[in-house]
Design goal:
By secondary structure, the protein is mainly β. The chain is built from one helix and 59 strands. The protein has seven domains: about 1-125, Immunoglobulins (Immunoglobulin-like), CATH 2.60.40.10; about 140-220, Immunoglobulin-like; about 230-320, Immunoglobulin-like; about 325-430, Immunoglobulins (Immunoglobulin-like, Sandwich); about 430-525, Immunoglobulin-like (Sandwich), CATH 2.60.40.10; about 530-625, Immunoglobulin-like; about 635-740, Beta Barrel (Elongation Factor Tu (Ef-tu), domain 3).
Amino acid sequence: MADVNTGGAGTLRLDVSQASTNPGANNVNINWALYLIERVTSNSTFQNSAIGANVSIDGVGTIWSGSFTFDWRGAGNQTTLIASGTATLGNNGDGTGRTWTFRGHMNSTGTSGAGGPTDVAQAVGTSATYVTPGTPTKPVASRVSDTQTNLAWTQSSASNGQPASNQVYCKTNNGGSVKILDISATNSAAIGTVANSKYEFQVQAWNSAGFSGVSPWSDPIFTTPGAPTSATATKQANLDIVVAWVNNVAYAEYNTEVWHGTVSGGVTTWDSTALTTVGSGVTSYTHAAPNPSQVHVYQVRSKAGTLLSSYAVSNSVQLLVAPNKPTLGTVPQYADKTQALTFGWTHNPIDTTPQSAYEVNFSTNGGSTWTTTGKVTSAVASRTIAANTYVANTAVQIRVRTWGQATTGGSDGTGASPWSDISTVTYKTAPTTTITIPANGGTVTDSTLRVTITFAQAEAATFVKATLELWQGAVLLESKDTTVLNGVVMSTPVQNGVTYTIKSKVLDSNGLWSSQVSNSFSVVYLAPVPAGIVLTYLPDTGWGQLDLSIPAPGGGQSAAATVTITRTINGLVETVVQDYPVSGTAMTFLDTVPTVNGVNLYTVTTKSALGATTQRTASLTTSELRRAFLSKGASFQTVGVFGANLSVDESLDVASTTIEAAGRTKPIGMYGTETSLQLKISSFVYENFGSTIDQLRKVLLTPGEACYRDASGRRVFGTAKGSLTYKRVDRADLSFTMTETS
């Protein structure tokens, strides 16, 4: 309700309200009333002539126009209904409410105090008038490609029943209905599809009032059917050809076309039209009485309306005729008369049928007469001549013919092929061989193996080559072909103390191999000459000197190539020299860290170039009583000598630890195998007894591992750290700590 004063005496009032809705028509009924109300109880002015007025609606225009009279002198406040009515107004097209503005107008009253002209306005919002959408029409599906189908339909609904969305349902290959799209309020959709499928669609609309009915199913739409596979063509006994295949179409609404072609010179020519079209589910077709003089081939494809799959092509088939002459396999020019000879051939059918039988002929007089195996029913395309069937120097001619499935025609009316080309083999005696070097059970004293063999052949064939094999047990070490018989050098060195087998077979000018023969032998290298040993103790350095004499080898000996020297002290073996080349008949070596009070046992090993060894031992006993030695540098060749008033304190330790544990009154002891040794050494240095102060200082400053030796027989290797305290220019106190390392 809206009011506006007309002047000092009155008020113009407009009253608007919604009365009812009509969802089916998408409109509402609105009641309106225009009043004039006196504002004062009395007024000397009055008006009783007609006053003009009208009512309008924004967007519609004037809905009432007229006049009224009003007496301003009436007792009390007066109210006059100028006009009233009902307006039927539409909502928005989608059924949502709409706002309308009503305007009331009164002209000038022409009376003092009543005022005018005057306008009053009131807006009213209408309520929504939704209804559920109507059922869409039957959709129309149009194939665009195997991967797209376009779908179109029409909405069936009143203006206020428009859908807010559409659901699209699909059946694939007669399966269940599945919702595939939920899209906006549209009349079409592009649907993704795949080949070899049948599709049907229906549509349902929706808005906030609910779902429409579901449209009828569309007519089915098809994509390219799946191609057949495994096409085969098979001849029948009555000379018909059965074409068979496997269907791969996912729906039932299809046919299968069978096409026929012929093959000539490797080129296929297809008929201009299909041989036949068969219905859905059929998987074979019989081609009755095809031309027996042609090679037949077939192809099949699936068809759904105008949609065609690719072809599946069968094998080629020719009807039953006699085969061509077979191809005789390679027959050797010469054969060992003591060995069985197997030869083969290739069946060459014209009609593709396999070999069913064969016959082989033999002649030993140049083809004047033949012996035969007779017709042998067999698919095997080979024959064996037994060993010793023919004597040496017999030339045997061989020919063969075959049968397929044809029982008429051919070379003799039975379906046989012509005879093959003739091959000739001459039987010979195989050659023989022996191994003369190395002798069986013999001994080889060298790493280089030289082999000598013999060759013989009864019919004076010549030697062509030999194959030699060197074996160690079951392992083939080397295979070698040679065209010489004497002194063949094998590439593999043979090892000292190992047993081997050499095998040989020979090839003659007839192309025949001998049987393989073998000899076993062992290898024992000649031991090298032993070294003569002279040992000398050098007291100024605490070294041992080894003077070796290396004589020339005598009978049954080999020359020494290298020398190795080890030293053993109290069971501990250490290397002094390793594989040092022998350079003459006399050699001298220095041992820089022997024990200076005890027995040094030296083992001198001479080794030949082949690896054989000879050992000699000698001992050097030393007996230092006072002096000690500290050696450092390369090969411990920097030596300091001392020992006046010598004092040595040893500190020994074995790795251990303790662990406290709950419930134990004493800790748990853990003991290892690691040991540590530390010597604290002191000595007086003075002139003419051992090394000078400068010499000892040089030793302490020399980098690297140190070795301490003294008259007790100690030999300790490790680190040495110490000092020299000068008493005079030529006298000092030496003290250092020696820590053993591993």
